[in-house]
Amino acid sequence: MPSFSTSPHLLLLQLFLLLFSEANTPINQQHTQVLICASKVTFAFANKSLALSSACVKRAIRESALVRKKARDTFVTIHVSKEVSNN
Questions:
Q1: Which of 17, 29, 36, 49 is surrounded by the fewest CB atoms within 10 Å?
Q2: Burial bucket for residue 87 (CB in 10 Å: 0-12, 13-18, 19+)
Q3: Residues 65, 66, 68, 71: what is their CA dihedral angle, to the nearest 10 degrees?
């Protein structure tokens, strides 16, 4: 029996290759149920990955906006203090 990858999104492909490696292998109800189960697992993994990626992107956008605001505030503070010291 082949070893399965630890990556869930490859599970469906590996099961397909395992079940239908011979050209004359008939598709029965058990094969269909296994493929449906693997498809559900793959779908759930993809949705979870998408949600995590989306959350990471949103956090990065908020952090970059905060850094831009701090940089702008610092620039204004330095600019104002130079004007005060020149006068």
A1: 29
A2: exposed
A3: 180
Phi, then psi, of 5 in degrees rounded to 5: -70, 155
User: Which residues have a Cβ under 8 Å from the Cβ of 46 and sit 6 or more positions away?
Assistant: 9
**CA distance to 19, 50, 59, 66, per residue, from 43 (Å):** 20, 11, 24, 35
Q: In a 10 Å sphere around its CB, with 0-12 CB exposed, 13-18 middle and 19+ buried, how is residue 32 labelled? A: exposed
> Does the global pTM surpass 0.70?
no
Which stretches within the chain are classed as H helix?
11-19, 29-86
> 6, 5, 2, 7: which is closest to 19 by C-alpha?
2
If we measure between CA atoms, which residue out of 17, 71, 16 comes closest to residue 38? 16
Give the number of other Cβ atoms within 10 Å of residue 8's Cβ: 16
